[in-house]
Protein backbone atom coordinates (compact mmCIF):
# COMPACT_ATOMS: atom_id res chain seq x y z
CA UNK A 1 0.00 0.00 0.00
CA UNK A 2 1.34 3.46 -0.93
CA UNK A 3 2.29 5.65 2.00
CA UNK A 4 0.12 8.72 2.62
CA UNK A 5 1.49 12.26 2.35
CA UNK A 6 3.13 13.57 5.52
CA UNK A 7 0.65 15.37 7.72
CA UNK A 8 2.31 18.74 7.17
CA UNK A 9 2.16 18.44 3.40
CA UNK A 10 -1.44 17.28 3.43
CA UNK A 11 -2.38 20.28 5.53
CA UNK A 12 -0.37 22.60 3.30
CA UNK A 13 -2.29 21.47 0.24
CA UNK A 14 -5.51 22.12 2.13
CA UNK A 15 -4.39 25.68 2.79
CA UNK A 16 -3.96 25.35 6.56
CA UNK A 17 -1.72 27.86 8.34
CA UNK A 18 0.40 26.56 11.23
CA UNK A 19 1.60 28.39 14.34
CA UNK A 20 5.17 28.07 15.50
CA UNK A 21 4.17 27.27 19.06
CA UNK A 22 1.82 28.11 21.90
CA UNK A 23 2.67 31.25 23.83
CA UNK A 24 5.07 32.76 21.32
CA UNK A 25 4.53 36.41 20.45
CA UNK A 26 2.99 36.93 17.02
CA UNK A 27 6.08 38.58 15.56
CA UNK A 28 8.21 35.56 16.46
CA UNK A 29 6.06 32.94 14.79
CA UNK A 30 7.37 31.61 11.51
CA UNK A 31 5.78 29.73 8.64
CA UNK A 32 6.13 26.34 6.99
CA UNK A 33 5.50 28.07 3.68
CA UNK A 34 7.45 30.33 1.36
CA UNK A 35 6.15 33.46 -0.37
CA UNK A 36 7.05 33.73 -4.05
CA UNK A 37 6.43 36.64 -6.47
CA UNK A 38 3.56 36.61 -8.97
CA UNK A 39 2.91 38.52 -12.18
CA UNK A 40 0.74 41.16 -10.53
CA UNK A 41 -0.61 42.47 -13.84
CA UNK A 42 -2.52 39.17 -14.13
CA UNK A 43 -4.46 39.85 -10.92
CA UNK A 44 -7.15 42.23 -9.79
CA UNK A 45 -8.38 42.84 -6.23
CA UNK A 46 -12.11 43.47 -6.07
CA UNK A 47 -14.59 44.66 -3.47
CA UNK A 48 -17.37 42.24 -4.47
CA UNK A 49 -20.93 42.93 -3.26
CA UNK A 50 -22.63 40.52 -0.87
CA UNK A 51 -26.38 39.97 -1.00
CA UNK A 52 -28.15 43.23 -1.86
CA UNK A 53 -24.82 45.04 -2.07
CA UNK A 54 -24.92 46.81 1.28
CA UNK A 55 -21.63 45.12 2.20
CA UNK A 56 -18.74 43.68 0.21
CA UNK A 57 -15.93 41.17 0.57
CA UNK A 58 -12.54 40.74 -1.04
CA UNK A 59 -12.33 38.72 -4.25
CA UNK A 60 -9.09 38.25 -6.20
CA UNK A 61 -9.25 37.21 -9.86
CA UNK A 62 -6.29 35.82 -11.77
CA UNK A 63 -5.82 35.70 -15.55
CA UNK A 64 -3.89 32.44 -16.08
CA UNK A 65 -3.96 32.18 -19.88
CA UNK A 66 -4.80 34.43 -22.83
CA UNK A 67 -7.54 32.10 -24.08
CA UNK A 68 -10.26 34.58 -23.08
CA UNK A 69 -10.52 37.50 -20.64
CA UNK A 70 -11.32 36.71 -17.02
CA UNK A 71 -12.30 40.27 -16.08
CA UNK A 72 -12.61 43.77 -17.51
CA UNK A 73 -11.65 46.93 -15.63
CA UNK A 74 -13.15 50.33 -16.43
CA UNK A 75 -11.15 53.55 -16.74
CA UNK A 76 -13.33 55.35 -14.20
CA UNK A 77 -12.32 56.43 -10.69
CA UNK A 78 -13.00 54.35 -8.76
CA UNK A 79 -12.62 51.63 -11.39
CA UNK A 80 -15.38 49.05 -11.69
CA UNK A 81 -14.69 45.41 -12.53
CA UNK A 82 -16.78 43.16 -14.75
CA UNK A 83 -16.18 39.58 -13.51
CA UNK A 84 -16.33 37.92 -16.92
CA UNK A 85 -15.17 34.59 -15.47
CA UNK A 86 -18.62 34.20 -13.92
CA UNK A 87 -20.11 33.79 -17.41
CA UNK A 88 -18.17 30.71 -18.60
CA UNK A 89 -16.32 27.62 -17.42
CA UNK A 90 -13.04 29.25 -16.43
CA UNK A 91 -11.24 26.01 -15.50
CA UNK A 92 -7.59 26.32 -16.54
CA UNK A 93 -8.14 29.89 -17.77
CA UNK A 94 -8.82 31.90 -14.63
CA UNK A 95 -8.54 31.48 -10.88
CA UNK A 96 -10.83 33.05 -8.32
CA UNK A 97 -9.90 33.57 -4.66
CA UNK A 98 -12.98 34.52 -2.65
CA UNK A 99 -12.29 33.93 1.05
CA UNK A 100 -9.69 33.09 3.68
CA UNK A 101 -9.05 29.70 2.08
CA UNK A 102 -7.71 31.51 -0.97
CA UNK A 103 -5.83 34.46 0.54
CA UNK A 104 -4.33 35.67 3.79
CA UNK A 105 -2.02 38.30 5.30
CA UNK A 106 1.71 37.63 5.44
CA UNK A 107 4.33 40.01 6.80
CA UNK A 108 7.96 39.11 6.23
CA UNK A 109 8.41 35.43 7.13
CA UNK A 110 5.22 35.19 9.22
CA UNK A 111 1.75 34.01 8.24
CA UNK A 112 -0.99 36.04 9.93
CA UNK A 113 -3.97 34.21 8.43
CA UNK A 114 -5.34 33.12 11.80
CA UNK A 115 -4.54 36.41 13.51
CA UNK A 116 -5.76 38.92 10.91
CA UNK A 117 -8.74 38.96 8.57
CA UNK A 118 -9.13 41.01 5.42
CA UNK A 119 -12.30 43.10 5.59
CA UNK A 120 -13.84 45.47 3.03
CA UNK A 121 -15.25 48.62 4.65
CA UNK A 122 -17.22 51.36 2.89
CA UNK A 123 -16.86 54.93 4.13
CA UNK A 124 -18.42 58.16 2.88
CA UNK A 125 -15.34 58.83 0.76
CA UNK A 126 -13.81 55.51 -0.17
CA UNK A 127 -13.92 51.72 -0.17
CA UNK A 128 -11.08 50.31 1.92
CA UNK A 129 -9.56 46.89 2.45
CA UNK A 130 -8.46 46.53 6.06
CA UNK A 131 -6.26 44.04 7.87
CA UNK A 132 -8.17 43.60 11.13
CA UNK A 133 -6.88 41.66 14.16
CA UNK A 134 -9.08 38.66 14.94
CA UNK A 135 -8.44 39.35 18.61
CA UNK A 136 -6.55 41.88 20.62
CA UNK A 137 -5.88 45.56 19.96
CA UNK A 138 -8.12 47.07 17.27
CA UNK A 139 -5.62 49.93 16.95
CA UNK A 140 -3.42 47.45 15.08
CA UNK A 141 -5.83 47.62 12.12
CA UNK A 142 -4.09 48.62 8.87
CA UNK A 143 -5.35 49.93 5.53
CA UNK A 144 -4.16 47.50 2.84
CA UNK A 145 -5.92 48.84 -0.26
CA UNK A 146 -8.32 51.58 -1.40
CA UNK A 147 -10.69 52.06 -4.31
CA UNK A 148 -9.98 55.78 -4.64
CA UNK A 149 -13.61 56.79 -4.22
CA UNK A 150 -17.09 55.47 -3.48
CA UNK A 151 -18.96 53.17 -5.82
CA UNK A 152 -21.34 50.26 -6.04
CA UNK A 153 -21.08 46.85 -7.62
CA UNK A 154 -17.67 45.27 -8.20
CA UNK A 155 -15.02 47.88 -7.42
CA UNK A 156 -11.27 47.60 -8.04
CA UNK A 157 -9.04 47.91 -4.97
CA UNK A 158 -5.53 49.34 -5.31
CA UNK A 159 -2.87 48.15 -2.89
CA UNK A 160 -1.31 50.76 -0.62
CA UNK A 161 2.46 51.38 -0.93
CA UNK A 162 4.51 48.49 0.44
CA UNK A 163 1.79 45.85 -0.07
CA UNK A 164 1.89 43.34 -2.93
CA UNK A 165 0.60 39.92 -3.90
CA UNK A 166 2.69 36.77 -3.54
CA UNK A 167 1.93 33.07 -3.86
CA UNK A 168 2.22 30.46 -1.12
CA UNK A 169 4.71 27.68 -1.85
CA UNK A 170 5.42 24.48 0.04
CA UNK A 171 8.99 23.63 -0.89
CA UNK A 172 9.06 23.92 -4.69
CA UNK A 173 5.32 23.35 -5.04
CA UNK A 174 3.09 26.36 -5.84
CA UNK A 175 -0.19 26.27 -3.93
CA UNK A 176 -3.58 27.75 -4.72
CA UNK A 177 -3.29 30.39 -2.02
CA UNK A 178 -2.24 34.03 -2.28
CA UNK A 179 -0.57 36.25 0.26
CA UNK A 180 -1.36 39.92 0.63
CA UNK A 181 2.23 40.61 1.57
CA UNK A 182 4.37 43.29 3.15
CA UNK A 183 7.98 43.13 4.33
CA UNK A 184 7.13 44.80 7.66
CA UNK A 185 3.98 46.23 9.20
CA UNK A 186 3.31 49.89 8.32
CA UNK A 187 4.98 52.24 10.75
CA UNK A 188 7.55 49.66 11.79
CA UNK A 189 10.01 50.20 8.98
CA UNK A 190 13.62 50.46 10.21
CA UNK A 191 14.72 54.07 10.52
CA UNK A 192 18.05 55.15 9.01
CA UNK A 193 20.79 55.49 11.60
CA UNK A 194 21.74 59.05 12.47
CA UNK A 195 25.50 59.32 12.89
CA UNK A 196 27.19 61.94 15.05
CA UNK A 197 28.78 64.78 13.05
CA UNK A 198 32.50 64.55 12.51
CA UNK A 199 34.65 67.17 14.19
CA UNK A 200 35.59 68.50 10.75
CA UNK A 201 31.89 69.08 10.00
CA UNK A 202 31.35 71.31 13.03
CA UNK A 203 31.40 75.10 12.46
CA UNK A 204 34.76 76.63 13.33
CA UNK A 205 35.02 79.22 16.06
CA UNK A 206 36.69 82.54 15.18
CA UNK A 207 40.02 83.19 16.85
CA UNK A 208 39.85 85.22 20.00
CA UNK A 209 36.39 83.96 20.98
CA UNK A 210 35.91 81.50 23.81
Write up what this structure looks like.
With 210 residues, the chain is mainly beta. The chain has one domain (29-182). 3% of the residues lie in helices and 37% in strands. It is built from 1 helix and 14 strands, in the order αββββββββββββββ. It has a 7-stranded antiparallel sheet with strand order 6-3-2-12-11-10-9, with no helix packed on it. A hairpin with a 4-residue loop joins strand 2 and strand 3 (55-63). It is globular. The termini are far apart. Residues 1-29 have low confidence and may be disordered.
Quick structural gist:
This protein is mainly beta and 210 residues long.
How does the SSE layout of this entry go?
Blueprint: H1 7-13, E1 34-37, E2 43-50, E3 55-63, E4 72-73, E5 81-82, E6 94-97, E7 103-107, E8 110-111, E9 116-122, E10 127-133, E11 142-146, E12 155-159, E13 164-170, E14 173-182
Parallel strand pairs: 7-14
Antiparallel strand pairs: 1-13, 2-3, 2-12, 3-6, 4-5, 7-8, 9-10, 10-11, 11-12, 13-14
Structure summary, number of beta strands: 14
Task: Tell me about the largest β-sheet.
Answer: 7 strands, antiparallel
User: Which class do the helix and strand fractions yield?
Assistant: mainly beta
Output the helix-strand order. Answer: HEEEEEEEEEEEEEE
Can you give the helix content as a percent range?
Answer: under 10%
The N- and C-terminal alpha carbons lie at a distance of 92 Å
Low-confidence stretches: 1-29
Number of domains: 1
Radius of gyration: 22 Å
Using the alpha-carbon principal axes, give the shape. Answer: globular
Amino acid sequence: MARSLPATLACALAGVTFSAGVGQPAAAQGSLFKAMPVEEQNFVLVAAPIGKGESSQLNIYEQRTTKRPCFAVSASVPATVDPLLATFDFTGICSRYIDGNGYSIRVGGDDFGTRYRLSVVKTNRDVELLAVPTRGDASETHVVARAGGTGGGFVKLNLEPGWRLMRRHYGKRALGHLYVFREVWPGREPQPAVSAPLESDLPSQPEGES
